[in-house]
Amino acid sequence: MGKTIIQKIFENHSKQSAVVGEIIDIDIDVRVARDFGGANVVKNLEENNLKLDDPDKTYFTFDCNPGGCDQKYATNQHICRIFARKNNVKIFDISSGIGTHLVIDEKIAKPGGTIVSTDSHANILGAIGAFGQGMGDKDIAHAFAYGKVWFKVPPTIKIELKGRPSNITTPKDVALKLLQEFGANGLLGFSAEIYGDYVDMLPLDARITIASMATEMGGIIILFPFKKAITADSDADYEDAVKVDIEGLKPMVSLPGHPEDVVSIDELDNVKVDSGFIGSCTNGRISDMRAAAKIMKDRKIAPGRVLKIVPSTDDVWKKCLEGGLIKIFKDAGALFGSAGCAGCAAGQIGQTGTGEIAISSGNRNFVGKQGKGDTYLASPETVAASLIAGYITSIDEIPDKPVSINVPESSHKISHLKKDLKISRLTSVEGKAWVIKKDNIDTDMIFHNRYLAITDINEMGQYTFDNLEGYENFSKKANPGDIVIAGKNFGAGSSRQQAVDCFKSLKISVIIAESFGAIYERNAINSAMPILIARDITSKVSDGDILSVDFTTGKIINKTKNTGINVKPFSKSQLDIYKNGGLLKK
């Protein structure tokens, strides 16, 4: 049987055979830490007396808060700078741009290569036929120190795009169509390969747009075949083959709160907007800037609205300057910022206030992700058209006069709690169940990005679930030893380690879910936070039930209902890491 692309990449970077479902060690060509995760990577290395495997393959990228406008971010950036100076590590410092784009544009990452980063959209490297994976700070520290990390070889789904979209439809609309097709967890645990006549004609920028949204589908990566470097065998073994019809596809829009809740723009009824954002790793390339400028030339942003534009890299910024695009944006009334992640990170341009309606070219619109407002997702072209019109519309439906503005409200709350941290190494636990009957609980719901600069685990617990509706007071009510029960795709979204460590801070004994986000699962295992996967667990356990859980046998006893549940126990690797106290402990 032939090999898929990801199997070939893995085997080219390992001494082991890439058998689907097996765990193997993979050599990592490029190892990257960003500004919010970088300080924790440094902390992990220094606390465990670990040295760098190869400084020439090691990088820091300051893309979340390129201005250092938050004191904790500025401190974390400086920690990374000091470490880099001592160890001859290259930094792409403030205003350089988004790290995943830089490693592509600077040809640091190559087709068929491997890269890991604290960026959950590192799978953007699929655009050049390379393997990229977002990871937590312990994984990245391990890659820095040893040049390799473990992976479970994923099965692959083959995606074929059929037909051609309409002439005003963009690659972002196609990405949203895929998200509509697969949902938030349709690619959970899978690698995907994408094919079709439409795919063959796509330039790099377009491939980046589609590849970057694999994370929102729960996928490990969407790989574009790179014929000069690496392709799948003709008899490769695929888990499934899916055809997606894009014939005549019109512009698409994701509704607030859920990237996968996608509709055709025709289904929206003149939704008024207060603000817009063009940028992110999904749509911050020069082609995106030029497309927006073409629409905005000799036009004005609707009165009372705000449009924020942030290029992906400093090179894109300079091309905007040289090509006169910045003048077009400024003449139209838009704000044009330094290169970086912007709206996806709490520390820079793109946040929203309570009641604000925004439309963004980003990849995520989780509740609270960009602030307290509601965010729709769309292409840069749709964002530009909508900010001129004052309501969500496509480029062929821009009215002669904009509509009037809405007025938002504002409010904010924050709780305070501090607990000491003690970690148990028991292989069986007993505790009260918190049953959360929700799927796709994302990392912003678990631990919001406004707290990402926190590095002290003792401070993290107080913010657990404070962005999950109905569970804002979880940290005040939870007791040491309690058990969290949840649905599918728990921990979807970001690579942030804090979304795991906040539960350790509260001394939660185990998290049991129907499935976990791929990065979240790694982070939990690597930090010795007990997790188990149990099908239909939310229907078998009630809130407040007392459970006894054995990690080595997978036996769960519901002492309240006098029933038993059998699940897959810890794997040998998970048990070894857990007993060791974490991936980096000795």
Describe this structure in words.
The two termini are 40 Å apart. The strands form six sheets. The protein has a seven-stranded mixed beta sheet. The chain has a five-stranded parallel beta sheet with strand order 4-3-2-5-6, with helices on both faces. Strands 16-15-14-17-18 form a five-stranded parallel beta sheet, covered by helices on one side. The model is unreliable at 410-423 (pLDDT under 50). The chain is built from 19 helices and 25 strands. The longest helix has 17 residues, at 71-87. A hairpin with a 7-residue loop joins strand 12 (252-254) and strand 13 (262-264). The chain is globular. It is α/β, with parallel strands linked by helices and 586 residues long. The protein has three domains: 5-245, 2-Layer Sandwich (Aconitase, domain 3), CATH 3.30.499.10; 252-397, 2-Layer Sandwich (Aconitase, domain 3); 428-580, Aconitase, domain 4 (Alpha-Beta Barrel), CATH 3.20.19.10.
